[in-house]
Amino acid sequence: AQRVTQPEKLLSVFKGAPVELKCNYSYSGSPELFWYVQYSRQRLQLLLRHISRESIKGFTADLNKGETSFHLKKPFAQEEDSAMYYCALSGQSGANNLFFGTGTRLTVIP
Amino acid sequence: DSGVTQTPKHLITATGQRVTLRCSPRSGDLSVYWYQQSLDQGLQFLIQYYNGEERAKGNILERFSAQQFPDLHSELNLSSLELGDSALYFCASSQYSGLTGELFFGEGSRLTVL
C-alpha cells in the first residue's frame, strides 16, 4: 500500500539557514512524487514534482529510491517560505489520485 | 476568478443530518477530486470524477456519495453524519482524467458536526 510519512509536524529555521523538510514513502512500484505548499490564506498548490527535476523558488527535491525518500531542500531560507508543506505520492503514471503526507509547517524566523 | 470554487466555506450541523458540499472546477478542467482532511491527518482521497463519470474511488464511506453534473460542477453528499465526519473537505480539479501531478485546489469546506 502507498504511504507518505512526514516525520516533522513543525520545523523552525532562521532566515538564511538551510532548510530540509523530510518525506519518506512506501510503495512497491515506481512512484511519482510531488511537493505541495500552502501559504497563509492561500490555496494548496503544486511546488514541484520529481519527474521535472526542477528548482522552484530555490527549492529542490531529489528522489532517493534506496532510502525511499524525497526530501525538500533549500540552501538559504527566506521569510516568505513560511508555509505548510505536503509531500504527495502517485503510485502509477496516470493514476487518478495523490496520497498526501500529514504536512510540515515551516516557520522561518527573521 | 476562474479557480476552483467550493461552497459553503463553513457548515455546522448535528449528528444524523445530511449535507451537500458543492464544487465548481477551474474553467476547462474535466476532472474533479474530493479529499477529506481531518485533524492531524493528511489529505485523504475520497473520489474522482471525469466528465461526469466516476473514475477512481478512495476511502469513501458508504454514507458519502458524489456526482458530477453536465456543467462539470460536483457535489459531495454526506449523510447520517457522525462527530468523526468533522473535517475540511477539499475539492480539486485537473484537465485530464489521469493524473499529471498538478491538482488545482479549492479553499475547502469546513464541516463541523456537533
Structure overview:
The complex is a heterodimer of chains A (about 110) and B (about 110). Chain A has about 110 residues and is mainly β. Chain A is about 0% helix and about 45% strand. Chain A has strands spanning about 5, 10-15, 20, 25, 30-40, 45-50, 60, 70-75, 85-90, 100, 105-110. In chain A, the strands form 3 sheets. In chain A, strands 2, 5, 6, 9, 10 and 11 form a 6-stranded mixed beta sheet that branches. A 3-stranded antiparallel beta sheet of chain A has the order 3-8-7, with no helix packed on it. The model of chain A has no long low-confidence stretch (mean pLDDT about 90). The model of chain B has no long low-confidence stretch (mean pLDDT about 90). Chain B is built from no helices and 11 strands. Chain B is about 0% helix and about 50% strand. The interface of A and B includes residues 34, 44, 46 and 97 of A.
Descriptive tags:
heterodimer; A: 110 residues; mainly beta; six-stranded mixed sheet; three-stranded antiparallel sheet; 11 strands; B: 114 residues; four-stranded antiparallel sheet; globular
Pick out the low-confidence regions of chain B: none
Shape of chain A: globular
Q: Specify the structural class of chain A.
A: mainly beta
Largest sheet of chain A: 6 strands, mixed
Helices and strands, with pairings:
The complex is a heterodimer of chains A (about 110) and B (about 110).
Chain A: E1 3-5, E2 10-14, E3 19-21, E4 24-26, E5 32-38, E6 45-49, E7 60-61, E8 72-74, E9 83-90, E10 99-100, E11 104-109
Parallel strand pairs in A: 2-11
Antiparallel strand pairs in A: 1-4, 3-8, 5-6, 5-9, 7-8, 9-10, 9-11
Chain B: E1 5-7, E2 10-13, E3 19-24, E4 31-37, E5 44-50, E6 53-57, E7 64-68, E8 74-78, E9 87-94, E10 104-105, E11 109-113
Parallel strand pairs in B: 2-11
Antiparallel strand pairs in B: 1-3, 3-8, 4-5, 4-9, 5-6, 7-8, 9-10, 9-11
